[in-house]
């Protein structure tokens, strides 16, 4: 199911595969540095009862500083090389969408709501950008952190690690169970946002008619109701 959602964007992402590869590499380095820092602190704490020399402490401090620098540079790298391509993918899809609109005849546009098309060309594309950039970041980050942390935990104390991991299969089942419902509710939010955009566009296009028939207050109330519904639909997503 997840692959089906990602598949349409793979050709766009393939175009920037070099930047994305650099970004993922930087993300891996940042995650590994985040694991090394606590380990170095553990070594310092374990060495304190043995009265380490000032040179030993300085060496630990230098290593901590070096790892922190690597982590900071890596974070800058994945922000640049993961979020950058996501904006380029958004730009490419936007250009293709506009080119496709130019090929459609007038009869098709007469059947569509302009506000809905505007929403698809703006809000939906921003959602795609977040999916490509932030979604890829979260996916890789979670995989690396989980695998590396579990590996270190098993090395330190296997029995305690197995006890800690008992709820993990249950959480995974619950996640995949609720994933379709999350998708449906998020889609409902996007569709309602299209309704709001359509409402605003139609009111702006027919503002003279609204003034002529003194419908300003009625339209304000409708707009308020649409926004309240939009808030409720977003809350339904967050509650789940």
UniProtKB/TrEMBL annotation:
Cleaved signal peptide residues: none
Annotated TM spans: 20-41, 57-78, 131-156, 162-179
Recorded GO MF terms: ABC-type transporter activity; ATP binding
Localisation: Membrane
Keyword Ion transport: no
ABC transmembrane type-1 domain span: 22-240
GO cellular component: membrane
UniProt keyword terms in alphabetical order: Membrane, Transmembrane, Transmembrane helix
Bilayer topology annotation: Multi-pass membrane protein
Keyword Transport: no
Family annotation (InterPro entries): ABC1_TM_dom, ABC1_TM_sf, Type_1_exporter
Name of protein: ABC transmembrane type-1 domain-containing protein
Organism: marine metagenome
Lineage, broadest ranks: unclassified sequences, metagenomes, ecological metagenomes
